[in-house]
């Protein structure tokens, strides 16, 4: 089993002077990041679809074994009628194929309002998702974490060989009340239980780490 480790983004200015050397220019962030970690979530694609030229530049700046896990644009995942976003979805997939061997699993993050009552939309979406293109799905509605609804969702994902994103936000809910408030405001992650479910031949884990390693260690 191969393990890929990365962050939601590669361009975090606060890293300059620690993760990156002092005075590292933004144009060097991706190249240097990809020499230290093996994957990135690619949060940038959630806000805008990159051009083919940008994709080519990403490939040129990273090793062949590096993996991008692009987040599906919010114009698809957060718009009404997920089941009707066929053209936009297939167009996005085609653009991401430009990453070639660097393309890892894509990542569909559904909004908190997407409830089990809308599951038929997800079923239709998975129905036109191309076979052989790895996909992970993250749900944020609390009902999906109840036993019956979780089992229904997991069965659907298993049927289509799609991974269920396992998000672990426990670290930012540890410590003093003041510290938790600061971290939760910064990270803006929902307070949901860790749901361990294997529904595909790969695992997609999102660990929301605490800035103090002594908090993380017991949870890893």
Estimated structural class: alpha/beta
The amount of helix comes to 25-40%
At CATH level 3, the topology is TIM Barrel
Given as residue ranges, the uncertain stretches (5+ residues, pLDDT < 50) are: none
- The Cα radius of gyration reads 18 Å
The tally of structural domains comes to 1
Report the CATH architecture: Alpha-Beta Barrel
Q: In DSSP terms, counting alpha (H) and pi (I) runs of 4 or more, how many helices?
A: 8
In one word, what is the shape? globular
Tag the structure with descriptive keywords.
single chain, 220 residues, TIM Barrel
Textual characterization of the structure:
This protein has helices spanning 29-33, 52-61, 74-77, 86-96, 119-128, 147-159, 177-187, 213-216, and strands at 6-7, 39-40, 67-68, 106-109, 135-138, 163-164, 166-168, 205-207. The chain has a three-stranded parallel β-sheet, with no helix packed on it. It has a single domain, classed as TIM Barrel, CATH 3.20.20. The protein starts with 5 loop residues before the first strand and ends with a helix. It has 220 residues and is of the alpha/beta class. 26% of the residues are buried.
């Amino acid at each position: 089993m191969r393990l890929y480790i990365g962050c939601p983004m590669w361009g975090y200015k606060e890293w300059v002077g620690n993760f990156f050397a002092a005075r590292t220019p933004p144009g060097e962030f991706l190249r240097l990041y990809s020499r230290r970690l093996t994957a990135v979530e690619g949060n940038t694609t959630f806000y805008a679809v990159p051009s083919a030229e940008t994709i080519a530049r990403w490939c040129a700046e990273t090793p062949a074994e590096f993996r991008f896990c692009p987040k599906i644009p919010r114009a698809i995942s957060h718009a009404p009628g997920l089941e009707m976003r066929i053209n936009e979805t297939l167009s996005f997939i085609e653009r991401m194929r430009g990453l070639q061997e660097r393309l890892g699993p894509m990542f569909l993050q559904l909004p908190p309002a997407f409830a089990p009552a809308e599951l038929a939309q997800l079923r239709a979406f998975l129905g036109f998702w191309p076979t052989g293109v790895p996909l992970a799905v993250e749900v944020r509605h609390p009902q999906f974490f109840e036993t019956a609804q979780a089992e229904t969702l997991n069965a659907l994902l298993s049927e289509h060989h799609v991974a269920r994103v396992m998000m672990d936000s426990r670290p930012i809910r540890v410590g003093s009340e003041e510290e938790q408030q600061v971290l939760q405001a910064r990270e803006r992650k929902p307070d949901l239980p860790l749901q361990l479910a294997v529904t595909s031949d790969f695992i997609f884990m999102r660990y929301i780490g605490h800035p103090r390693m002594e908090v993380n260690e017991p949870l890893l």
